[in-house]
Amino acid sequence: MSELFDAVDALLASRASLPPPEERRRLRKAHGLTIDEVATALRVRRATVSGWEAGKTEPRPPERDAYARLLEGLAKLYPVPVPATEEPEARAVSPGRPSQTVATTTADPTRTADATAAVEATRTAGTRTTAEATTTAESPQARPAASVPAPAAALRSARATRPSSAARRPGGEGAKRAGSVGDPAGGTDGRFENGPLAVVDVDADGQVLAYCTGGLVLDVPAKSLPALVEWTLTEGRLGQPRLSGAGKDADPLLVLTEAALERYGLPVALTDEERLAGRLPEGHKAVGQLARAGWRLTQRGFGPWARIYRPAQGSDRQCVQLCVPSWQALDSRHWGHAAQLPPADLARVLGVYASRVMTPRGSTAVTGLELMTALHPPTRASQPDATGKRHSEHNPGSLGKDPVDPAPCEVPDGHPLLADLPRFHVRGPGEKLFEEAYDWARPMTDAECTVRYLVGIDVNMAFAAGANGLVVGLGAPTHVKRPVFDPKLPGSWLVDLSHVDLSRVRVGKDKWADLDGSLLPSPFTPTGERPEGPAWYATPTVAYAVELGYEVRPLEAYVRYDNGRYLDGWYNRLRDAYLATMADLGVRADMAPADFLAAMDGYRERDPEMAIVVSAIKATVKGGIGKLRERPRGEGWRPGRPWRALARPTWRPDIRAAVISRTRVNLHRKIVKHAAFTGQYPVAVLSDCVVYAADGTSPLDFLPYRDGTPLPGGFKLGVNPGLVKHEGTQTVLWGEEVRERFDAPALNLARYIKDGTVTGADNGE
Question: CA 362, CA 624: separation in Å to the nearest integer?
Fold first, then answer.
């Protein structure tokens, strides 16, 4: 009978009643929960919870019952408020400065369009929207209305004859395009109702305007740079909620156009000296203005990514970040032509990136590293002590607030740990951990020269996929002599792998394959050459040698017993950002192989602005991993002396090595599976690109799909991280001609397969 009761309970749970999507979002925010916290508790993805709150999907068992229980508990704590019937009281407003005060009434999702229009008629003088956003039939998700004191109402009346912002928006488009972030999936935080950032520009009438996300345009009354900072913090309502409960809210970001730079007394471009220094000189009048107003600059000064702040008073944080595109803040290698976009379009590009990744904190590399910290803050508030006070304590799963020394084998040349080495000493594999991406190629065989084409395939977000589920060290290493290898223990291992023979490898639990090892790159070196003796390797590389069926006996190791999956949240957020943006461009994760290849053809031209976001997300992955082992950047550094990056707890060359090791191993595993099943071997491999000789021009001409199903463990076409796309196709004659022209039989053709353009001989860099 109990089994019957259990079955009935399961049926009831599968139909557990849930409140409407808007109420789900309200209850979560009322309790101060982030989407990530709810997703973690229910063991689902962040995008899944966002879909539940947006009404796009509904939870299924067993998560549905747990989600219903959470909402039921929150509903008891935060019942639906009764709408206020009295006129909301407005704050006092400084004469001549429009208010951004939000009314104290609670927005009712069921209010009529007429009521919405009546409230919208009382919005403050500083705010304008596009033609789409100001229609009287506003959607139920409209922002809470603001009360208007008499002075602000008079200002608004005086400006009523000015053209609408939509008329001045290039192209006349509204905000409701793919990738619009007027109402992010996580809902709008009242403190940051105008979005995470604004592009500040000056119109033909001399009015300073702040172009925000979702098509919103604000009038900016500030006449000076200090006043602009004050306005941002007091009236701009810009910023972004924290990504972790123990983290900090993102500071507002202002992007200054050339016209805005001139208005606020800043140069449109830096001089050569200023560009090399990365900042304005300390004596610049703008720096002096900020100092006199009580504002400070961080150590990097007033450069392309400046941070202007006042020392925090308790939990009151006052900080504004500036981005100056004309000072090369937006690197064209990663942001394309973003710096040349009109203000509204630039706000859209940066706004989508901010909502899906985070508010930019500098270059894409800097932002990638900052995202790791934002998801795993080094400290958290403790439980109240006997007096009721909370204290700062270590946040489990983070890298902590203090840097740790790596192992000597993990550091680059010139590190203080190597100060005692002779000046011109060159460390070999037995002294230095050298986990890098592939750069390998070989001459084509006679059989390969008889086919017509060379086809390149590229792994999507390869380094992100390498980080997914990877266990990395969180603390300092422990030196161990003659250890027994443990594939679950992150660290660096000195071991001889020269005995691993790729001519015979294990490709399954009890399944071995005989291959032509001379046509395969070694998985243990970035050059693909077989190791000749003991060398240092990260855990994933040594574990792969065991997977291939060979015994390993490490001589020594530096292992990290304090470890965890530190990069999982980082991977999940960047994966979701990438997939959502690719979906905006018409490339979805559920496509059949042929449909996927067709969708990828020219996808960037469908929405060039969203294509910029895709490039920035990919650069955030690679740059963030690279930043874990940042090298000295001038500043008078000398070998053997510390450099600035070493003071960060996120300076972790061991984590970088582990990610690259796993990425290279993942690729080699697919190459071996493909060779064992098809007898085809790669001609060249460069990082995450592999080139094969084929009879046709498409990857489907050599990938062994059967009824749409790929080879298990092999290459699979698709947009998800770790799957592959078509990189490019050239003829075999092209490849032979290029190698002959440069007298380089092993020239890496993967470097040029995309468009066939070869500008010089391959020097391996």
Answer: 12
Helix (H) or strand (E) holding 228: helix 225-234
Q: What single-letter DSSP state applies at residue 302?
A: S
Residue with token string 């805005």: 260
Nearest to 321 by CA among 254, 370, 367: 254
Over the stretch 275-322, which tens digit does the pLDDT of each residue have? Answer: 999 999 999 999 999 999 999 999 889 999 999 999 877 667 899 999
First to last CA, the chain: 71
Query: What value does the mean pLDDT of the chain take?
Result: 85
Sign of the four-CA dihedral 611, 616, 617, 621 = positive
Give per-residue pLDDT as tens, 499-552: 999 999 999 888 999 999 999 999 999 999 999 999 999 999 999 999 999 999
Which tokens sit at 694?
């084929």
CA 88, chain centre distance (Å): 41
Helices (H), 557-713: 568-584, 593-600, 603-606, 608-627, 653-678
What is the residue type of 632? P
- Find, among 568, 495, 705, the residue nearest to 40 by Cα: 568
- Phi first, then psi, for residue 487 (nearest 5°) are -65, -15
CA–chain centroid gap for 295, Å, is 30
- Tell me the two tokens of residue 537: 């390797």
How many CA atoms lie less than 13 Å away from 32 in the CB half-sphere?
Answer: 5
Q: Tell me 482's DSSP state.
A: S
Strand pairing report for 534-538 and 439-441: unpaired
* Pairwise CA distance, residues 99 & 119, whole Å: 16
Give yes or no for a contact between 13 and 62, defined as CB atoms under 8 angstroms apart. Answer: yes
So what's the pLDDT on residue 10? 58
d(CA 177, CA 128): 19
Return d(Cα 584, Cα 610) in angstroms, integer. Answer: 7
In terms of C-beta density within 10 A (0-12 exposed, 13-18 middle, 19 or more buried), how is residue 122 classed? Answer: middle
Token code pair at residue 404? 């740790």
Q: H/E element holding 253?
A: strand 253-256
How many angstroms from the chain centroid is the CA of residue 576? 9
DSSP 8-state code for residue 254? E
User: Under 8 Å CB-to-CB from 377, ≥6 apart: which residues?
Assistant: 244, 246, 247, 248, 395, 398
Residues 6+ apart with CB under 8 A from 700: 593, 594, 597, 717
By CB atoms closer than 10 A (0-12, 13-18, 19+), residue 288 is: exposed
Q: What is the spatial distance between Cα 630 and Cα 648, in angstroms, rounded to a whole number?
A: 10
Tokens representing 359 are 């508010």
Cα(482)–Cα(500) distance, integer angstroms: 20
Segment 148-202, tens digit of pLDDT? 333 333 333 333 333 333 323 333 333 334 444 433 334 457 789 999 999 999 9
How many Å apart are CA 218 and CA 613, to the nearest integer?
24
As a whole number of angstroms, the distance between CA 22 and CA 408 comes to 54
Strands 684-686 and 127-128, sheet pairing:
unpaired
Closest CA to 651 of 669, 632, 637, 666: 632
Sign of CA pseudo-dihedral 266, 272, 277, 283 = negative
Q: Are 123 and 157 in contact (CB under 8 A)?
A: no
* Overall average pLDDT of the 644-665 stretch: 97
What lies within 8 Å, CB to CB, of 105 at 6+ separation is: 83, 84, 88, 144, 145
Residue 232: how many CB atoms within 10 A of its CB? Answer: 27
